[in-house]
């Protein structure tokens, strides 16, 4: 009787090494955080419905106490995809810098008495997530002030960027390159839900967003790229947001 040997044993050492090198290697991260320590903290606050206007007014008046300690990228009020919510992004050069900022805030009497002590009772919950820009994305500035933003969040299947990274990039680029939205940045989670990616988009208005989205649905390149990416997707959520008056990214 002919005995079949395992395929790996039929390969000569050099061939086996070449075959192993050709196999995709799962990476634990997207890459740039290993080269650069800069990361972005996403924060989402849910506000008591009867305190929404008061919270935004207080934050508008006192946010300078917070930005004195670290850089604010943007601060938005969620209009669609969640009520009575704000979303903000903070930039840090390292985890040690963030720890120093948090320690300094805890010892800042103005921040505590004028803002935190008044703001906390207005909130029902707080959530944060540490993210890095994906390797092919850079943080962009909007073409002009006065637009609206969409935060599209994708929960990808386990496996990491080595599995779904190329497909996700192709899907985002298929929308960005033809102008179906202006990509402000694409981010990959590090702390918080894993295998989550976010795309932050800018549009002239909510109506302009609806118009270009309709056009994208008829673009064969977009349809093909999305079909290739969606096989790696577990769920998706998006929010349409308006920048607050004090937001650096307007």
- What is the 3D shape? globular
Average pLDDT metric? 88
Topology as H/E string?
Answer: HHHEHEEHHEEHEEHHE
Q: Percent of residues in helical segments?
A: 25-40%
Please give the number of β-strands.
Answer: 8
* CATH fold label: Alpha-Beta Plaits
CATH class descriptor name:
Alpha Beta
Signal peptide: 1-22
Protein name: Protein NipSnap homolog 3A
Domain NIPSNAP: 40-138, 149-248
GO biological process, one term: mitophagy
Could you characterize the architecture of this molecule?
- Residues 1-22 form the signal peptide.
- Pfam families: NIPSNAP.
- The chain is an alpha+beta fold and 250 residues long.
- The protein has a single domain, classed as Alpha-Beta Plaits (2-Layer Sandwich).
- The chain contains 9 helices and 8 strands.
- It has helices at residues 7-10, 13-22, 32-35, 52-67, 95-106, 109-119, 161-176, 206-216, 220-230, and strands spanning 39-47, 71-80, 85-92, 123-133, 148-156, 182-191, 196-203, 233-243.
- It has an 8-stranded antiparallel barrel with strand order 1-3-2-8-5-7-6-4, surrounded by 4 helices.
- A hairpin with a 4-residue loop joins strand 6 and strand 7.
- Helix 4 packs antiparallel against helix 6 (109-119).
- Mean pLDDT is 88; it is low at 1-34.
């Amino acid at each position: 009787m002919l005995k079949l040997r395992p395929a790996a044993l039929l390969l000569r050492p050099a061939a086996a090494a070449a075959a192993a090198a050709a196999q995709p290697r799962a990476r634990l991260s997207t890459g740039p955080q290993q080269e650069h320590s800069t990361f972005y903290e996403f924060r989402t606050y849910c506000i008591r419905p009867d305190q929404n206007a008061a919270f935004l007014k207080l934050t508008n008046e006192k946010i300078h106490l917070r930005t004195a300690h670290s850089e604010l990228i943007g601060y938005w009020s969620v209009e669609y995809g969640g009520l009575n919510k704000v979303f903000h992004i903070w930039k840090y050069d390292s985890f040690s810098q963030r720890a120093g900022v948090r320690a300094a805030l805890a010892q800042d009497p103005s921040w505590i008495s004028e803002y935190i002590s008044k703001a906390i009772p207005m909130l029902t919950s707080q959530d944060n997530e540490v993210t890095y820009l994906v390797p092919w994305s850079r943080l962009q500035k909007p073409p002009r002030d006065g637009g609206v933003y969409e935060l599209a969040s994708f929960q990808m299947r386990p496996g990491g960027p080595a599995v779904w990274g190329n497909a996700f990039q192709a899907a985002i680029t298929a929308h960005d390159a033809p102008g179906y939205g202006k990509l402000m940045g694409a981010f990959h989670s590090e702390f918080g839900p894993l295998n989550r990616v976010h795309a932050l988009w800018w549009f002239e208005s909510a109506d302009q967003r609806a118009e270009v989205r309709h056009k994208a649905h008829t673009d064969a390149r977009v349809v093909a790229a999305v079909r290739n990416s969606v096989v790696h997707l577990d769920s998706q959520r998006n929010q349409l947001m308006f920048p607050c008056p004090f937001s650096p990214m307007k």
